[in-house]
Amino acid sequence: MEEMKHNSIVYKKKLVLFALFLNVLIMVMNTSMFNIAVPVITEDFQINTAAASWIVTSYSVFFAIGVVIYGRLGTNAAIPFLLTIGLLLLGAGSILGVFAETYPLLILARVIQAAGTSSVSALGMQMITRYFPVEEKAKAMSIYASASTLGFGLGPLVGGLLTEYLGWSFLFMVSVLGALMIPVYRKNVPFEVPGGSLFDIPGFLLLSTSAVSALLFVSTGSLFFLAGAVAFVLFLIHINRVKEPFIAPALLKQPIYVLSLAIGFAVFFIHFAILFITPLLLADVYSLNTAAIGWIIFPGAAGSAVLMILIGRMAEKTGILFIIGGGTVCVTAASILYAGFGGHEPWLMGLFFLVSSLGFSCITMGVPNYLSGKLAPAEFSSGFGLLQLTQFIGGAFGVAVSGKLLSWDRLAGSPLFFVWQGEGAAYSNSYAFLIGIAILSVVCFCFFYKQAGRFRSETF
Questions:
Q1: Tally of domains within the chain
Q2: Exposed end of the chain (fewer CB within 10 Å): N or C?
Q3: 102: nearest Cα among 143, 139, 51
Q4: pLDDT tens digits, residue range 108-145?
């Protein structure tokens, strides 16, 4: 195959953008389709909600880890080569999932999928920034964003319809399409190795080990996994001793950056938890099938995607801090609505999901946007890598904790919110737990806003 080592121009740009659009669409859909299928998978494999949470948790953890790995490798290896590896893994994991007859195999398939599709998240923007002409970058980025928006709305609907009429195994077939785009990248994107900083493998492994250990402790309750705290201590020691650490210690000394991590963690925790709890509630309390669940959640997801286009246009007038603050308020309001009124009517779930999705989207757009003007060039790669890692780890914790709460008999007695009607007290109380996390996100934003005033004209 002919390699374009000295030509930093993408050939057949429209074809490459189509491939990227499809891969981003599949990547986003793959994070939400399986949430709708959780009730059916739980019944098929006869597992409890704590075990079922690993359908989402395993994917989120390895997706987060993969984004950081591919992002760093993208400065030392050719993008088409890395995308080939990633999409082959996505295809392999998807095929394994189609034929998975045991729950461990299903989880393995999700892990392999995450290890593959995370390459698209990490390398898609790098490809646009590096190889598209300046006058075409804005258009290319808008196509990338539109795919993400469309996937965010379609995921719940497609997941519900496929699960109901064809079976949850067909959800994996959707992702197989992504691997078909490999030849497009290999033939039209330069095989260029730009060169960059070294990848601090020990630091990355120590941080990942501590995060995964904490998740396993939450899910299993085994004190053995608390040993992961040692890995985190070693990580803090390590990054202060090496020349090019995985995370620059100076970043962790900046209050506004640490607060941005806390906000991202909390909001992803809440949103992923809601995505996990809600389909189970609709199936258990309202006895709805997966197709109906998909139709209930879809309007909220699609509506928030449309509103985010308008909010994005308003960003210059309102300011990005207003959008971030609005996001924390929305997830707090949604948590209260779910905890108090989720037992009234199923259609209300779509309205509540509009509020929570809007808050989630405000944070995913607002925090990176704000930090892009504050991070120094040398801190950009590790800063955004840690932000993405923290956010998706937060989502994984949200699902793991929710699964544990729903399995806890003590929460199934009576709802904490007296306005809750009907059955499903455990769901109301699990949503109520999210209110505490949401309030913490609002408190963090208040400190974040105060720090932003101090650093308004400065960089880190």
A1: 3
A2: N
A3: 51
A4: 999 999 999 999 988 887 787 777 777 676 677 767 76
